[in-house]
Every structure is written in C-alpha cells, then in structure tokens.
Amino acid sequence: MAALTIATGTGNWFSALALGVTLLKCLLIPTYHSTDFEVHRNWLAITHSLPISQWYYEATSEWTLDYPPFFAWFEYILSHVAKYFDQEMLNVHNLNYSSSRTLLFQRFSVIFMDVLFVCCKCIDGKKVGKELTEKPKFILSVLLLWNFGLLIVDHIHFQYNGFLFGLMLLSIARLFQKRHMEGAFLFAVLLHFKHIYLYVAPAYGVYLLRSYCFTANKPDGSIRWKSFSFVRVISLGLVVFLVSALSLGPFLALNQLPQVFSRLFPFKRGLCHAYWAPNFWALYNALDKVLSVIGLKLKFLDPNNIPKASMTSGLVQQFQHTVLPSVTPLATLICTLIAILPSIFCLWFKPQGPRGFLRCLTLCALSSFMFGWHVHEKAILLAILPMSLLSVGKAGDASIFLILTTTGHYSLFPLLFTAPELPIKILLMLLFTIYSISSLKTLFRKEKPLFNWMETFYLLGLGPLEVCCEFVFPFTSWKVKYPFIPLLLTSVYCAVGITYAWFKLYVSVLIDSAIGKTKKQ
C-alpha cells in the first residue's frame, strides 16, 4: 500500500523530510515534559536495579510499572546505556530525579527509537494491490512523519509511541503483502510492548482468519468453507503462543501473572482519565453535570447527596454520577463490543481487501476510544495514524481524516499547559492542519468539496474556543472557582467532532459494503 510503501525510489525528498523532522525534535528537547518523563525514568531504575521478580511489585514511586514485559525489557536495555550518562537516574529511591544528562538521554532515546517509524519507507510494496500503491507518496510521508499529535506527545509531553506505531505499520504492510505470519508475529510482539493495541486486535484476528486461514472464496466473494486450513490456524496460534510465552513465561514461572495483569488492567481507576478523553463518556459526564446543576437549581436534588469527587480535579479516581447511572468497566466493555461488531461483520462477510481491513482497524480503534474504560486522550493517535493511510485513497476518507485529525489533535492541547509551549503547539498544529487540508484538497480537486458548510463551521469554531480557553478565561473570576472549565469545554467540543467522524466513517463503511454486495450480485 502506498501508505506503507514510502519506498526506494522516492528520492532525496524523503531524506529531507526525515532529517527536517529529526532536527525539529532536537529543537524540542528543552521544552516542558510531563510526569511521563519521571514515569519512564522510574521504570529505567526499577528494571536496572531490581530483580525481575520485583518489577511488577515495586511501589516506592506512585509511577509503578504498568506496561507489558517486552516494554519492561526495553527499559532494561535502555538502562544499560543510561548508566553512562547519569548513574543517579537509575536509583529507585531518587524520586523525581532530573539532571541535564538525564534529560538529554531520555529525549534522545525517543528520537533514536523513531528510526523504526521513519524506516517504514523501506517496505517493498510491489506485492500490494495497485489501487493502493499508486497514491501520492509525498503527501502521505508528511502526514505520517510530521504528524502533529505524535510530535507533541512523544517529543514534548514525553512518551515512546513512534517506534510502536512503526511496528504497527510494518505489521500492516506484511499483511497486505500476504506475508501473514510475519504480520501476525509483529502484531503479537507489539501487544506485548503496549497493550493499548488490544483496541485493534479484533480487526487483526478476523482479517487473518478470513484471508489466511480460509484459502479460497466463492465467485461472489463469500467464504468457501471447505478451504479452511487447520495447519494455518495452528501455525498462527503457535506464533502468538511463542511470543506470549517469551513475554509472560518468566512471570508465570514466578507465579506472578495475576500481579502483572492487575498492573496492566487497573480497573480501580476511574471511568475517565485526569484529562478527559474527548469521547462518548465526556459527553455523558457533561450531560450529568448539566442535569445536576439544573436539579440543584430547581431543588430536585439534595446538595448533601451530591458526590464530592470531581472528575476534573486532575486526579485518577473512581467517580459516581449524580443524575445519570454510574458506569462500570463491564458496561464500557459491552458498549465497546457492540460498537465494533458492525465493522467486524463487514470485514468477515463483505471483505474489501486491504482498504477494508484498514477501515475496520480504524473503526476498532475509534470505537474503543469512544466507549473504553479509563481511556487516555493520547489514544486518539491509534485511530489518526491508520486513517492517514486511507486519506490519500478516496475523497470521502480524506474528509473524515481531516475532521478526525484536526479535532483529535486539538484535544491534545491541554497536555501542554505551560506558557512557553503555547506558541509552539499553536504554530505546529496550524502548519500541519493547513498542509493537510490544502494538499488533500488539491489531490481531490476534481471531486466534490471535502467539507460541507456545517463541518467547516465546526472546524473554524476551534479558533474561538482556543481564544476563549487560553486568552480570555485566565482573566475572568471563574479561573479560581471553576478552573476545570477550559478542559471541560475542550473535551466536550472535541468529543462532538470525533463522534461525528466515527459515525461518518461507519456510515461510509456500511454503504460501501452494501454497494459492493450489490455489484457482485
């Protein structure tokens, strides 16, 4: 797929793009970094100074190890390089430790690991369908390499997402090249690096079963059930089992699997993260808040029975809703499964090749983001990056991508709340957004406009929202009494746009599936 074949022959422009974004990342080294910087420093210390039997029990810091074992080993390897920079960063008891050498090491480790993301250009796409390989590579390269969200989350806020997305893109490419075993292996490895990729596991599972374990289709595109291959199912299962055994085996031997899983899936945390992810639950929470205010004003509610816990206090905690029913982890799981089922159904019964898989993968990511438990706002990138691949294929997908990416990227603004980063995030987002819209409009200039008047009005509304939150609200008396209002407004406004993009993509997938079935008949 072109999206993944930013391949040999692209010339010097790709090297220039990669070098340019790397230099930008270096310029961002002195900027603000979040508590995730201390999280990863603490994980370096844990894995370096403690035996493996204590990794998932150590709790000196509040930032305990809560990623899968492969990422823990990744931190272990990094720690053996870190000791040459500053040995003190590897002391478990040096809480909130920081030094110039620690800063340089951690920042450069993220930049270095991004090499895997950049090297997706090396994927050979000759075996991928023509309809996906003849799309403009330059536009796609910019959308991926210069992705605004990935830049600020990894290189300002601080995380290691770039190389993980690189693994995902490599995995997707291998599937499209019909190298299914390699694709399955890479995705299994990815899951044991960061379990958030479980969001898209249903799409992988169904696609592999449908396109690899069944070796033939009927003329109308439906499954030829007799073509089912037990050997291929067993081989796939063996790959997953061996990767899982390598990752979890040591902890199984230590009888620590329950402890590991309790860290990976902390359901005692609240429905929403400290910064509300702009999803369905943000709208649900806002509605509950509005109803509670109205209820108090009309004296339908007793002030003494109103829960004191606030979901906008910046803390991760459980929360009871006031008017609407409180939400449990099981409820969010059921909602998520219901949300992804239609896309899985389409992928199984009405497959549309690589493009159909990518759309299903994006819908799985978006549905999990929309309805999942304790979703981080940064998880929107898991939908934005795959959607980037689709955006250069069809005008309809380009329109959805632009709405999703503009809204999703803006929802990340509260992560960077310090004054020096304000002009940086505004400038970088404007540059990326203007390029994305102008380039895709040019690409599909013979098609109908990418936005209707309502979508245009909504996206332009992000400007006044930013002015209100950053330049007006701080000078009002509400800043002390209602400090959560900018976050609330941002989350709710962006939730509307992301929900709209999710719904629009779903409608597009269902309509295309119906049209495809009609044509075959």
Task: Give the key terms.
521 residues; mainly alpha; globular; disordered N terminus
Can you walk through the features of this model?
The model is unreliable at 1-9, 122-134 and 310-317 (pLDDT under 50). The radius of gyration is 23 Å and the shape is globular. With 521 residues, it is mainly alpha-helical. It is 62% helix and 0% strand.
Put the structure in a nutshell.
The protein has 23 helices and no strands. With 521 residues, the protein is mainly α. It has helices at 12-27, 35-49, 69-82, 100-113, 115-118, 130-133, 137-145, 148-158, 162-176, 180-191, 201-213, 230-253, 257-264, 280-297, 329-349, 353-371, 381-391, 395-410, 422-443, 453-460, 462-472, 478-481, 485-520.
